[in-house]
Every structure is written in structure tokens, then in C-alpha cells.
Specification:
Layout (H helix, E strand, L loop, with lengths): L4 H4 L11 H15 L3 H20 L11 H9 L5 H46 L3 H39 L1 H15 L6 H8 L3 H7 L6 H10 L9 H12 L5 H32 L21 H36 L1 E2 L2 E2 H15 L4 H9 L7 H13 L15 H10 L4 H12 L5 H11 L2 H30 L2
Antiparallel strand pairs: 1-2
Helix pairs in contact: 5-6, 6-13, 8-9, 9-19, 10-12, 11-12, 11-17, 11-18, 14-15, 15-16, 16-17, 18-20, 19-20
């Protein structure tokens, strides 16, 4: 006959009801269970772990240092000598892959959406007997603008965002923030702003969302207001085209490519410098306050999760940002068609607006066509160049399929000839590259800033601040240029 378990293991009394004798008895029992050498074994385990950790991180003169891949990489990517060249080279590679890799899919989407579907829709509208104005508004306006945004914006984002996320998964982005932390601290900003700035090179709206990693509201607001100085993918086509046909034409053909690329990189670097300068201005005026401490733990390098990265980048970033751009591009397409096709006094409305804006445009080294194109293209920077070409056709009186409809010329030589017929000079090209960097954010970014800050005031400041800087910079460049040329 066996005793019950309750008899063998009577329930223990709670600490509130146990007497001191009971507690001492329980302690004595537990001491015998763990053994007399427990304290010694515990100390030995602690010192063993400490010695193992010390062997990994301490280099002794008499010992050959052990090879540590993470520390070896960190000596390069975070060094004072090589850190910044590696950073610039790495992101130049990312931008080059993005720009070069996007050419083919952008061309395919352009052929599909504009070369194939657009004529098919025109034929379908003609067969249905739609009035010319409804056909033009819906197909040549709303559809064509939306198709341009998708064809130009989708491939670069689908390439840039996964590449950027792969760098993040690999562990490089915290090192980048480490390198730039001192510069941002001197500017009164937060070191993590480096990450949101780099995200802005893909899309400023995504860069604004990325500022959520900054805990300080003041420093996050600085990062939001200066993110527009990072060239988003919607502005790269304008930079590349203008640099190719104006800057590249100044040198022999075998140097044209590298000189054009350096001109675009120069504009991007100017944007980074302005990020530091404007951050310093904001932190010492409207947004005064102490710079928060930035405790950054450098994570170990690890292999990126490629398929998960591609999926999350496409769903969480690319599709999200593209959808917002489409929502704003559709009504912009309607406006573009209306100003180009609604006539007042025998001339399209766009002609009257361009003539009204011309004096201001010429004063800052641009023209009325460019200013109107940027007003119309507030919803999406991707449609600036086709809008400029369409308006130039209207102003020069050139006849053809491009009149009143967005289009793209076959070659850069044809584009240069059309722009020169519209009165463009090298000064116009240079100041357009500057103004492409220093103008108001697109409506998608402005709306994102409003949603993130919950303030109409800061959304307005984010739009007016870079635009004011853009007018000042282009004005001084134009005056100095003309003074030097004796005009």
C-alpha cells in the first residue's frame, strides 16, 4: 500500500503565513538540494563566460588577433578615411542600377500603356461616338497622365525600394547613420535623419513616413521639412535628360556620359548640403531645442532575406506610394488637357498663362512654360518633361500629333531642337536642374506631411520653404550668369 502524493508532498505555506522557523527549514533543505559547491560553480560559470567574451574582443600584444568579419567590415565602412567614399560609391551604385535597370521596364510599360492601349482607347471612343472633348478629357488627359506616372514611376520604385531594404537587412544603414550622426548633430538634427533622407531618394513621401523612427517630435519635424532636398525618382528623368542634352553637349561625345552623370550627382550632393544648412537654420530659429542623445547599437551583419524583402518592399512601399501618385495624377491630367485645348480669344488657355508667367520665369533664368509645367505637375513630378514639350509645341506653333497632348520625342537631338526653338539656352537648362531640386514637393508628399504632422501649417511650410529657396538660388545664378556673359 502506497501513501498518497499529498501526504508525501504537503502543500507549502505562503510567505505571509510561514513562521521564521519554517523559512529557515526550507532554506536549509534547498541548500542541501543544490549542493555545497553551488556558489563556487556559479562564480566559475560567470568568470568563464567573461573570459570567453574577453577573448573575442580583447587583443593582447603577445597574441595574433583573431579574424572577425563584422569588425573587419566596420573598420572600413565606419572609418574616417573610407566611410564617406564607400557610402557615396554604394549609393551611386544603387542609383545607377535603379536608373539603368528601370529603362527597359519603363520602355515596355510606355509601349503597352501609351503606344498600344492609348490608340486602342481612342479607336474605341471613336466607335462609341464620344464627343471630341469628352474623348480628349478622359483619354488624352486623365488616362495619358496616369499612364505616364505608372510607366515612369513604377519601375524605379520597384528597383530602388528592394535594394534599399536589402541594405537595411544586411545591417549597413545603421553604419550610415553612424557616419552622418556628427554632421546632423552639428546641424541640430538627429542622426537617424540620414535614413529618412536616403529613403527620400526613392520617394519623398516614403522618406517622410520613414521619419517615424525619430523619437523627438522637434527633430522629426526637421527631418520632414528637409526631406524634399533629396532627389526623388520622379525628378531623376528631368535631371538626366537636361544634363544629357545641355551639359553633355559641352564636351566631346566620348565624355558626354560621364560629364552628364557628374552633373546629376552634383545636384544630388547640393541637395544633401542644403539638408544640413536648412536643418541648422530650422534648429536655431523656428524649431529651437536640445539635440537628443542618439544611442546607436550596430547590429551584426546578416544575410538579407531576399524574397521577404522584395515582397514587403513592393507591397508596403512601392504600391502604397504609387497608388497615392495615381490618385493625384488623374485630375492633373484633366487640367493639362483643359489648359491646352480650351481656347480664349482664339488661343489655348495655356498660351495666355505662359505669357503671363514669362516675365517671372525669365527673371530667374527659366520661362513661363517651365513655371506652368511645374504648377500643373504638382501632383506628380514625372509629368514635367512631357508637359514642357507639349506646352513648347503650343507656344512655338509646331503642328503635329503633340499639339495639346503629352508626348515624347524619338531622340535627344529632336528634344534639344524643340527646346531651342522655344528659346532655351544653357542657362535655362542649368537653372531647370536647380529648380527641379529646389521646388515644392509633389502633392503626394504634401498630403503625406499633413497626415504625419496633423498640421496644415507645417504642410504649407514644407511646400513654401524649398520653393522660396529655389526662386532665390535661380535668381542669383541667372543674374551672375548674365553679368559674366555681359548680357
Amino acid at each position: 500500500m502506497t501513501a498518497s502524493s499529498s501526504a508525501l508532498n504537503p502543500p507549502r505555506q505562503s510567505a505571509a503565513t510561514a513562521s521564521p522557523d519554517d523559512i529557515f527549514a526550507a532554506a536549509q533543505s534547498l541548500r542541501w538540494e543544490v549542493g555545497r559547491d553551488f556558489h563556487q560553480e556559479l562564480m566559475e560559470a560567470i568568470y568563464t563566460d567573461a573570459a570567453r567574451i574577453a577573448d573575442r574582443v580583447v587583443t593582447r600584444p603577445e597574441q595574433k588577433p583573431r579574424f572577425d568579419l563584422d569588425r573587419t567590415i566596420d573598420r572600413l565602412v565606419t572609418s574616417r578615411l573610407w566611410g564617406f567614399p564607400i557610402m557615396i560609391g554604394l549609393f551611386t551604385l544603387v542609383f545607377w542600377i535603379t536608373i539603368s535597370g528601370a529603362n527597359v521596364p519603363s520602355g515596355l510599360l510606355n509601349d503597352l500603356l501609351i503606344g498600344l492601349i492609348h490608340p486602342w482607347l481612342k479607336g474605341l471612343a471613336a466607335a462609341a461616338g464620344l464627343p471630341w472633348w469628352l474623348d480628349g478629357l478622359l483619354i488624352d488627359g486623365i488616362y495619358l497622365a496616369t499612364a505616364w506616372v505608372v510607366a515612369v514611376m513604377l519601375p524605379p520604385m520597384a528597383i530602388f525600394f528592394p535594394l534599399f531594404t536589402l541594405l537595411e537587412d544586411f545591417g549597413y544603414l545603421p553604419r550610415l547613420a553612424f557616419n552622418l550622426d556628427a554632421l546632423f548633430k552639428r546641424s541640430g538634427a538627429h542622426g537617424k535623419q540620414a535614413l529618412s533622407m536616403m529613403m527620400g531618394f526613392g520617394c519623398n513621401a516614403a522618406g517622410v513616413i520613414a521619419t517615424r523612427i525619430i523619437d523627438s517630435p522637434r527633430e522629426r519635424l526637421i527631418a520632414i521639412l528637409t526631406n524634399n532636398f533629396a532627389l526623388c525618382n520622379g525628378r531623376w528623368p528631368t535631371q538626366i535628360l537636361i544634363a544629357s542634352i545641355f551639359i553633355g553637349a559641352l564636351v566631346p561625345s566620348y565624355l558626354a556620359g560621364i560629364v552628364s552623370a557628374l552633373a546629376v550627382v552634383g545636384i544630388a550632393v547640393l541637395g544633401v548640403l542644403l539638408t544640413f544648412l536648412v536643418s541648422a537654420f530650422l534648429s536655431r530659429t523656428w524649431l529651437r531645442g536640445e539635440v537628443s542623445t542618439f544611442s546607436l547599437e550596430l547590429p551584426p551583419y546578416r544575410p538579407p532575406r531576399i524574397w521577404q524583402t522584395i515582397y514587403t518592399s513592393l507591397i508596403d512601399r512601392t504600391i502604397y506610394v504609387l497608388w497615392r501618385a495615381i490618385v493625384f495624377a488623374a485630375p492633373a491630367g484633366a487640367v493639362i488637357w483643359l489648359v491646352a485645348n480650351v481656347t480664349v480669344g482664339g488661343a489655348p488657355l495655356a498660351v495666355h498663362i505662359v505669357r503671363l508667367l514669362d516675365p517671372v520665369g525669365v527673371l530667374i533664368g527659366l520661362n513661363g512654360v517651365i513655371l506652368l509645367a511645374y504648377v500643373i505637375a504638382i501632383p506628380a513630378n514625372e509629368i514635367v518633361i512631357p508637359t514642357v514639350l507639349m506646352l513648347t509645341v503650343l507656344m512655338t506653333g509646331t503642328q503635329g500629333a503633340g499639339a495639346g497632348v503629352m508626348f515624347e520625342l524619338e531622340s535627344q537631338a529632336d528634344t534639344l531642337a524643340l527646346l531651342q526653338a522655344g528659346g532655351w539656352t544653357l542657362l535655362t537648362g542649368v537653372n531647370l536642374m536647380l529648380f527641379s531640386l529646389l521646388h515644392n514637393p509633389c502633392s503626394t508628399t504634401i498630403f503625406t506631411i499633413y497626415k504625419e504632422t496633423g498640421s496644415r501649417k507645417w504642410a504649407a511650410v514644407s511646400a513654401l520653404l524649398p520653393l522660396t529657396i529655389g526662386f532665390i538660388v535661380t535668381f542669383f545664378v541667372a543674374q551672375v550668369w548674365r553679368l559674366a556673359a555681359g548680357v
